[in-house]
Amino acid sequence: MRSGSRNALQQGARGDRTGNVSKLVKAIGRNKHAYLFLVPTFLFLGTFSYYPPISAMIHAFFRWDGVGSGVFVGLGNFRELVTEDEFFIRSCLNVCILLTFNVLKTITMPFLVAELIYWLWRERARYAYRVIFILPMVTPGIVVTLLWKFIYDTHIGPLNRFLTGVGLENLAMPWLASTKIALYSLAAVGFPWAGGIGVLIYLAGLHNIPADIFDAARVDGAGWLRRLVRIDFPLVLSQVRVLTVMTVLGTIQGFETVMIMTKGGPGFSTLVPGLYMYRQAFQYGRFGYATAIGLLMFLGILFFTYANLKLVRSRE
Amino acid sequence: MTPTRKMVPEIGRHAALIALGLLTLAPFIIMLNISLKNDAQFFTEFWTLSRPIQWGNFAYAWDIVSRYILNSVIVSGVSVFGVLFMASLSAYSFARFRFPGRGLLFFMVIGLLMIPGVLALVPLFSLVQHFPLAGGNNILGQGGSGLLNSRWGLILPYMAGGQIIAIFILRNFFEAIPQSLFDAARVDGASELHIIRLVVVPLSLPILITVGLMVFLGTWNDYVWPLVVIRSPELRTLPVGMAFLQGEYEIKYGQVMAGYTIGCVPLLVLFVFTMKHFIQGLTLGAIKG
Prior knowledge:
heterodimer, A: 2 domains, B: mainly alpha, 14 helices
């Protein structure tokens, strides 16, 4: 149907110019409802979805306090960020470490859980476990974050209580208050990293694998580990890709976990670019500088998404 | 193969799943357990169930948290209806009309999926603060606080952001409705709005619910935007309210945990009643990222 309308336009192009224009006017008039129905959407998108990112791309080159148009500084913001701002550079390293852990977390444990659930005998049991592992997603994310902050608490937190209780008091640590381990504590949030959307996505992937592939593997006498490595995992690679992209986007953009649990500290040992951008704008009023950070994060997201697509595709 | 030999891996799977499930739910189990303790019980009997059970914690926490829940219900509810209304109109337009510029306009909607929220955050704040003719602002957006510290400062951007993926999903669905139904309605003299109300919406109810839940979850869990927009404690949404629970109120550990527990209830209730759509909405929302 779409090509039909294109043909009509092409035919119009072959005719004389006035005929072309009047045909266009007629086509627009005939479809006036179509345009009318788009008006609210485009009013909203224009104001709240188009204007801000365009403003960001412009103001990244300005010294701007959020009011008026600011002072043009060329690449000044970027030069300062990349060459002078050790907080920003540290925050980029931090987010790379978190990124590595988070990607590993989301592609391994949920896959294992999905495998365990998929090969259960009874549909009832599969359903019940599925619900159990979704439950963390059904609670507000903020509650999970606040609970982990509590779990890590040096004095009253369950983790140190547990370690002391079982005689491992030398392992009890100031999990979020030590510059050396705070970042890794953040990376470990959600242990055993088994719940969540990954389980559902992998289960859907496993269900898409034709049964005769499994039958063939069984006939060939492949054990479960061999089947898992040689069949199940390669056949859910597209799910791996989806989860990786999701995690990369979420990790680079999401800073509320860091903000709530450590505020980027102690010192700037857990600072991430998103939080740094937030502070530059809302604490120091450096809106131009903040949008420059946002623009670099956008480029980072584009880079990682592209690299991931290339990488996983070449392996397939 | 003997049945016993086949039983072993099955039991192993159950054991592994139960262990992982317990660890996954452990923070919530700890939360529930503490929510029933007073401070003395919290310090002396941390791991065990305490007697007497402190039901009063929930009454105390409810007085604080109920307001946040109401705020979140209003903000998310209005956003969901706004998104569904505008996205249905646009998706219908893209799905059932062949008009000049259709491809370009559709691309202009979908292209926004590539723009991450983090790029827009800071200028969006400035836009909301200097929104013309709102919150004491003049027509140039100066003089007042704009949409800051009002529910509209949350709802209007949510209504824009939620539409993008909604239009994409709904358009695919609306395109699959048989043309004969539309022809029949038009023969009967139904106007376009009638067709949407009497043909499209009833046939698309499941997908509308899914999309609605997706938008609801996204706005319900949002933390950073309400944090910067809302100043008055009485307008705080649930996530912001819960983050400020400890520290701003004279509140004990048991009461904090009771507050977190109460904060979990609305989504759980929604989940129980709309399980299938909820999971779809969750998956769509996650993939949209």
